[in-house]
Amino acid sequence: EAGVTQFPSHSVIEKGQTVTLRCDPISGHDNLYWYRRVMGKEIKFLLHFVKESKQDESGMPNNRFLAERTGGTYSTLKVQPAELEDSGVYFCASSQPGTNQPQHFGDGTRLSIL
Amino acid sequence: GNSVTQMEGPVTLSEEAFLTINCTYTATGYPSLFWYVQYPGEGLQLLLKATKADDKGSNKGFEATYRKETTSFHLEKGSVQVSDSAVYFCALRNTGNQFYFGTGTSLTVIP
């Protein structure tokens, strides 16, 4: 079974540019989560999809971040325009339908804003 | 609210040394507690978990006991190996299935 895959593994862009991160969850996993770790700090929850619907987006830092999950399969997280403080590692996780299912994490995308 | 506080790193140990990484939490309700590990160049992997008070999670020689009275979930291993070098994250999951992570503790084990 393929795990959660994220693309790209590393992105380096200039301040003001746009970047789109992609996450492919494990097949059949309705739940999809985005997290972010800013250097030296804790991993913080950004949002949670159940299929194509946003269940909880309370962790999204501001309106420069847009997450989508059209069709309830893969998800994208777009940052536009990127700011220096957006640098960090963005993790995606997925889990099977229902609550209290274990979350499986991807390898993360390291985003560097110059 | 919910939060996790874990021991600051980095931690450097010699092979076969005893490891403790402290973790305490604040939570509403009855959370589940986890330790995740991130090996160099890889994603987060579940190391162990405990879902209720006094449960002990264990895996690969690591152990942690859910202590409700001290709101702690300290990670221990009796004899570390070079291959244990990684970043360790303590986390809780609340009843809403949302995770709260600590800042991570980097462990380096030297031969």
What does this entry show, briefly?
The complex is a heterodimer of chains A (114) and B (111). With 114 residues, chain A is an all-beta fold.
Describe the structure.
By secondary structure, chain A is mostly beta strands. Helix content of chain A is 0%, strand content 49%. Chain A has strands spanning 5-7, 10-13, 19-24, 31-37, 43-50, 53-56, 65-68, 75-79, 88-95, 104-105, 109-113. The mean pLDDT of chain B is 93. Chain B has 111 residues and is mostly beta strands. Chain B starts with a strand and ends with a strand. Chain B has strands at 3-6, 11-14, 19-21, 23-26, 32-38, 44-50, 56-59, 62-65, 75-77, 86-93, 99-101, 105-110. Classes of the chains: A mainly beta (114), B mainly beta (111). At the A-B interface, β4, β5 and β9 of A face β6, β10 and β11 of B.
What is the topology?
The complex is a heterodimer of chains A (114) and B (111).
Chain A: E1 5-7, E2 10-13, E3 19-24, E4 31-37, E5 43-50, E6 53-56, E7 65-68, E8 75-79, E9 88-95, E10 104-105, E11 109-113
Parallel strand pairs in A: 2-11
Antiparallel strand pairs in A: 1-3, 3-8, 4-5, 4-9, 5-6, 7-8, 9-10, 9-11
Chain B: E1 3-6, E2 11-14, E3 19-21, E4 23-26, E5 32-38, E6 44-50, E7 56-59, E8 62-65, E9 75-77, E10 86-93, E11 99-101, E12 105-110
Parallel strand pairs in B: 2-12
Antiparallel strand pairs in B: 1-4, 3-9, 5-6, 5-10, 7-8, 8-9, 10-11, 10-12
